[in-house]
User: What shape does this take?
Amino acid sequence: MSKTSGLGAQVLVATNDISDDVTEFSIATPRALWDVTGVSKSAHERLAVLADASVSLKGAFDNGASLAHKTLSGVTSESSPLAVQIAPTATSGGAPYLAMNMLFSGYTVARSAAGELTFDTTGELADGAVPTWTNS
Assistant: This one.
């Protein structure tokens, strides 16, 4: 596999393709580590335990049907997880993607002094399923 850029990335939230509105994203898939070091050890001994995931999305405000604002603005009044699928590279030819059900903790819309209207939101893993990268 060769190095590649993030050009042509795809972001789906609740089956809506909001890729044209998202200008930045980040994905984290940490594991909790349990320190099980016995008193007889001179170095740490750890076990990987619970998996987790979070997604940060930032972008340009777009009020069009099935686009970013319509898709994400309800997260402040809903308590249901949303299906999120992110392919960080172009989606043709077996590109990797990560699909998860996420609870979003907020949705921020901000206007800069220059007039840019942007959004920012963060989702956290919701359903206990271990996030696993898959190839399309």
In short: Helices lie at 68-72. The radius of gyration is 18 Å. The longest helix spans residues 68-72. The chain has a mean pLDDT of 92.
